[in-house]
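mind reviewing this stuff:

——
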Amino acid sequence: MLSRSIRRRTLALVLGILAVSLGLISWTSYRDARHEIEELFDARLAQSARLLQGLIGRELSAASHDELQAALDAAVNYQRYAAPGVSPPGHHYEGKLGLQVFDERGALRLASAGAPGEALGQLLARHPAARAERPFASLAPGFHTVSVGAHQWRLFLLHDQSDALWILVSERDDVRGELVGKIARRSLLPDLVGLPLLALLIWLAVGWGLRPLARMAQLLRTRDPDNLTPLLLAPLPRELEPVAASLNRLLLQVNQLLEREKRFIADAAHELRTPLAVLRIHAQNAQQATTTAERDEALAQLLVGVDRTTRVVSQLLTLARLEPNASALRMAPLDLHALVCESLAELTPLALARRQELTLDADEAADYRLVGDAASLATLLQNAVGNALQYTPDGGQIQVSLQAEAERLRLQVADSGPGVPAEQRAQLFERFYRQGGGEGAGLGLSIIARIAELHGASVRLEHSPLGGLCLCVELPRTRLPLPA
């Protein structure tokens, strides 16, 4: 369901990116904050060591030593010396800081309350080569980390060369950890609390942004199936304009196709009604004939009617096959001259039966190659020549000519029939329109026009040099795009 919802998918993607980004930012902030806190505390340790270095000396008397030790205890462990019921100013982290002073032999000269006594031992244990008389000789001044009991201690060792003293300032590591943890919680808490609120706001924002799409979907969902009028959505976002335009164009094409089918079905029903009625009459005449001659004549008329009805049905099926989206043409390179020769060979027996002269005028050395659908072009030739054979009187002449040009091929079918006046020629391309007393269904030229349209060709009717009608079709060598 998530992949089928644009809103949920967008929300999941945005929130996922936001969560990952906030996580990376928070982790980077935590890491940088921890590093800066470590630097700050280390600087405070070094500063405390140097302050203590300025207060003590090797020649410090016993009385001065005791006074300094008492002052140091009072400063570090201030709460012990506060008056009863009085909360002295300060911070509880101060009690986790230790100060120690050693001489060159490792003897403790000064120590604050709470200082880890085992810190020096832990530090010396890392250097087994240290000598008892000079234990600090193997230690490097600077920062160290040791474990004393259950806690980690951060140490800063300072060597006072003038007074031959070693100052060790120590601090429990949990002070730093606690501070870093508080900073992390305070920085992450707004993100954790604000993420659900931000998710709700993004959800509402995405829903508002997709409202035109939801309105379009609702309009399509509640639309009557028979309603093929264009969608009227205004104002429409720029991203949905191509969708609405495509839908409206599709609705227009479907509407045109349905109207064409309705008209075609109505015309076909009207056109087939008469031949079927004639067939029934001839069948009844044959059934009611009293003599053999009458029955044979009725059966002969029945066969003629069956042939005419078969021709009408065949042309109707051909025209239906050529309707938009009914069938995809198989466009491929072909030789139009060879195709014309094959079609004329099939129609020659019909011409001979009428004692008509059927000829082909073409330069066999010319190039007649083009890109087209061989089956539909053969249908075009058969209808064009078939119409000429039908409307040309017995003993007449039909001439088919081919001419090759650089960009197109010209096919002409001329006959010596009665012809058609110029003002009536345009009507011949209408469906079921017949001129004169022919036996056709009036679909031949409609089929020719449709095949020419599918090939990007032009077709027209002219006066024939033989005295009748001339059909001229100009075919491009490469098929042009079909009109929208």
The chain has ten helices and twelve strands. The chain has three domains: 6-79+94-182, 238-321, 332-476. The radius of gyration is 53 Å. The domain at 332-476 is CATH 3.30.565.10 (Heat Shock Protein 90).
